[in-house]
Amino acid sequence: MGQPLSRFEGEDKVRGLATYAFEHPVPHPAYLSAVRSTVATGEIIGIDCSQASAQPGVLAVLTHLNAPRLGIDDGELRILQSGDVAFRGQFVGGVIAESSEIARHAAALVRVDYRERPHDVDLESSRERGQLRVPQQTMALFPMDTDKGDVDSALAAAAVQVDSTYRTPWYNHNPLEPHTTIACWTSAGLTLHVSTQHPQGVQTTVATAFRLEPDQIRVFSPHVGGAFGSKGPRHSDLILAVMAAQLVPDRPVRFALTRHQMFSQTGYRSPTMQRVRLGADADGRLTAVAHESIEQTSRLKEFAEHATRATPTMYATPHLQVRQQLAALDLPTPAIMRAPGECVGMFALESAMDELAVAGGLDPVELRIRNEPDTHPLDGLPFSSRSLPACLREGARRFGWESRDPTPRARRHDGWLVGTGVAAATYPTLRLPGSKVTIRVTPDGRHTVLMAAVDIGTGTRTALTQVAADALRVDLAQVELRLGDTAYPPAAPEGGSAGITSWGATICAGADELRRRLAADHGGTVPAEGLEVTVDMPENPHLKQYAMHAFGAQFAEVRVHDETGEIRVPRQLGVYAVGRVVNPKTAHSQLIGGMTMGLSMALHEASILDPRYGHVVNHDLATYHVSSNADVGTVDAYWVEEDDPYVNPMGTKGLGEIGIVGAAAAIANAVHHATGVRIRELPITLDKLLPHE
């Protein structure tokens, strides 16, 4: 551990030798193309498949009239169970054919008649129309609403106050690899090759839906081409592929979503409307914090982004209130997306902290340090480690913050207004349940580690091998790690920045058990037949004794053209406290990737909804803008030394998501410093700046 190794599979990937789900070689495959609804809500009153069925090469046409009855209650996954339509683009059928071209052509020939109903896709007016409700549940481990003290009275008495509303748009994940499945039913069971963050989750979901035993299903996912959360939950494309394969037994069916389809089928980050109220005394110490978020979900299934969840962790205050509300609309179901909750919530909170610094005449870095808590502000637990002040100070030193003139519009360079901004970052350190590992050792010292975990392109395969070698006290060359197959012991999902923390802790427990067995039963010598142990992930005895979080500080320099309003970000710098770093090379890659995604969030990304038809209109990468090389300047990521013996045996904290947290706020704060204009709605585009020029 601690060595900056390149990813072991990197050479195979750049040479095209790494096999992703859709590329897996299968004999005589069939192809599936989906038929999707063209209304936002309504009922199918007629469906004509005759032209599609008559096309040469068409094997079967799937609709709600011949689809199998599913044994699952999940509204998002219960497709083709009736003629009801819940959102525009919902699957209403599919065509299975000998080639993808034939399948697509025939799918376009399926004629569907609807009885359309009025649809509601308006989040902005949901409060006025009485459409809001408190979520029944949010992501595990985090409360929905929080009250401590008397926020309203404290705000009224505060020497300095901020009361602002911030908006973030609909974001889509857009991993490089689309969602893909190969499904094949045989007399022996069902085989699936799936692009997923959780092979075991695919196995159990499909088993429930199709009334199978999990051991009748085998899921392969050796390589995944990105996910950003979209491949964590199961979506309707998986169910449609398995349904289609039932109609052509013994034929593997390939199904890949198009980029267009991914904008409605695989989840997204809900837009948010967030009100943040801060009160502070004359010295800048917070006396009250209130954070309210309004988000959307579908009518099929509830999902809450929980944008307020980081707020109770951040700053010391005697009075604290967070609120979460949802509007159920005639739209697809949102899903987890990189740093769910923290990503959008910290944009609002950290923008408000910058507004408080300006209103109180305080340095934004000093304001955050001044409000550093001794214990968790809500539950009073000590932090297992908390190095946010160190991140802020080190970041300020590296960034050159001390030379900053706090006056907006004070710095110009060749026709550009130059500004700098800062924001804090946090993400919880989680250990997700459900992992096991099998470790085999042979007399020649070879160790094989088996676990149904996945590598979604983050370097997990390399980092876990480093953890295993360290735990087994052997060289890397003596360890073979096998992932991505449900024939191996189950693994928790890749998500929540919990991959290494969960799987690594399990591997460490397996290494300890292997040594114990060798010593107790074999005198410390590997027997001729070898030895195998299988263990569960151990519980963390410190989980209820400490609050466990990673922290960081984001700095950004922006340049805004004085005449055109064009925005450039020549510099981003982040400093993080993420415990022990397993692999500095892949860690740095993850952090700067998150920061770049934060820049994209700040300046470019937004899915645009057409309320007339209830769908996203910029549903491709030509019109859904993401940051390209031309948009990204110098991005630097560093970390401070942090020893945390309580989080897990390795002392690691997840770092796959914290890089995006606070990045957009730092850029927005820098735009205000450059221009004097406070933009509270993302993305920050010319139309929002030009009225103030």
UniProtKB/TrEMBL annotation:
Highest rank taxon of the organism: Bacteria
Keyword Oxidoreductase (UniProt): yes
Keywords linked to the UniProt accession: Molybdenum, Oxidoreductase
Alphabetized InterPro entries for the sequence: Ald_Oxase/Xan_DH_a/b, Ald_Oxase/Xan_DH_a/b_sf, Ald_Oxase/xanthine_DH-like, AldOxase/xan_DH_MoCoBD1, AldOxase/xan_DH_MoCoBD2, AldOxase/xan_DH_Mopterin-bd_sf
Record has Glycoprotein as a keyword: no
Stretches assigned to the Aldehyde oxidase/xanthine dehydrogenase a/b hammerhead domain: 15-118
Single GO MF descriptor: oxidoreductase activity
Alphabetical list of Gene3D superfamilies matching this protein: Aldehyde oxidase/xanthine dehydrogenase, a/b hammerhead, Aldehyde oxidase/xanthine dehydrogenase, molybdopterin binding domain
PANTHER family in UniProt: ALDEHYDE OXIDASE 1-RELATED, XANTHINE DEHYDROGENASE
Protein name according to UniProt: Xanthine dehydrogenase
Species this chain originates from: Micromonospora craterilacus
